[in-house]
């Protein structure tokens, strides 16, 4: 265990010294918890402290000189970085429960519903999805927004993430999943040009590959999109799924792999393809729950070890069932041990790393989030152990407890940029009844408009 230099003793603390939520300008001291920094140089700190000023972590250790900082009492709790959802589709959030009713499969059902969404529906779905992520300790998301039907839809999606208070890369895409229609590059350039260097929600490219590798016109259109993103310095995510082998080969042959590109899924990727991604410095986003649900095959984490920059994603709250990163971690661990018939192989600590530090690296945000390291933004979660599903923990490394037993409702406190967004188990600044009513109304209207 490694600590930063200890300074002065703390004054007597209270749980919440003020009723209001913290703003980024406030100084906060989180004290008394088991801190899992997920930073290899810092390790875990029992009965540790984190000092936050102006939205950044300024010190981690014990007996920090906190001055007049407000205190958050984390005694008996686990403090760790907020989860990073490396790949998702938040606009499908209000489609929950619509897939597999009868013969309804995800892709045809979601495409039919997505086609009739208004900008208001888009905002409702994405805002609900982002708020649900925050409730479960997910502080950063990579949202693959491939339902930009009009510029107003694009604006609504961006505003939804900004209003929710989550950190995100909004991967801006086309109007559907067919790859036959182009992305609105004019709006992509406008949104990218309008973002500040330190924006909490940043812009990327949600890029799709032609299914027909001989379609020259479609490849030319895709090339324009790729070139535009590269010229703007934007990160790119691309699905490699279904017929993953030929699609991955196309990325390699056309020299599209580079450090700013994240390959999503790649469930049946060959070792040589993964090695090519690693040589190019690219990253990988795996979404075990959705990959199993749509029948891509079993996601065995050990089969992707060749790629170092690797994160875990939900692939849409509705497709995953809920915004539960703990369930994603659990499924990844159980698939690994079950498929290999060896319970010793899954490493809970390594899986947590993929859901925090690894996800931040995959999104290109490792300098800002993913670990509780001084200098990074204060994005973190505090997990309380006073619940039946976590009772009986006798101490030691809490990694296995979190992976195999924890749930979103165990997350007591969540901070993004040093701002408290969940406190004492409740969302801050959210009109929850209004949010739920608006989401239900939008979901019902979309379903009615899309009815055969």
Descriptive overview:
This protein has 13 helices and 17 strands. The model is unreliable at 1-20 (pLDDT under 50). It is of the alpha/beta class and 452 residues long. Strand 2 and strand 3 form a beta hairpin. It starts with 26 loop residues before the first strand and ends with a helix. The chain has a domain at 8-81 and 372-426: Urease, subunit C, domain 1 (Roll), CATH 2.30.40.10. Strands 1, 2, 3, 4, 5, 14, 15, 16 and 17 form a nine-stranded mixed beta sheet that branches.
Query: What is the C-alpha radius of gyration, as a whole number of Å?
Result: 21 Å
Architecture (CATH level 2) name of the domain at 8-81 and 372-426: Roll
Q: What is the CATH domain class of the domain at 8-81 and 372-426?
A: Mainly Beta
**Morphology:** globular
Total strand segments: 17
Return residue spans where pLDDT drops below 50 for at least 5 consecutive residues. 1-20
- Gap between N and C termini: 61 Å
Structural class: alpha/beta
- What is the CATH topology of the domain at 8-81 and 372-426? Urease, subunit C, domain 1
SSE topology:
Layout (H helix, E strand, L loop, with lengths): L26 E10 L7 E10 L2 E6 L8 E4 L3 E5 L1 E6 L17 H9 L4 H17 L2 E8 L5 H14 L2 E6 L12 H9 L7 E7 L8 H17 L3 E5 L3 H10 L7 E5 L5 H10 L2 E4 L1 H6 L16 E3 L4 H4 L4 H16 L7 H15 L17 E5 L14 H7 L5 E6 L2 E5 L2 E2 L4 H19 L2
Helix pairs in contact: 2-3, 2-13, 10-11, 10-12, 11-12
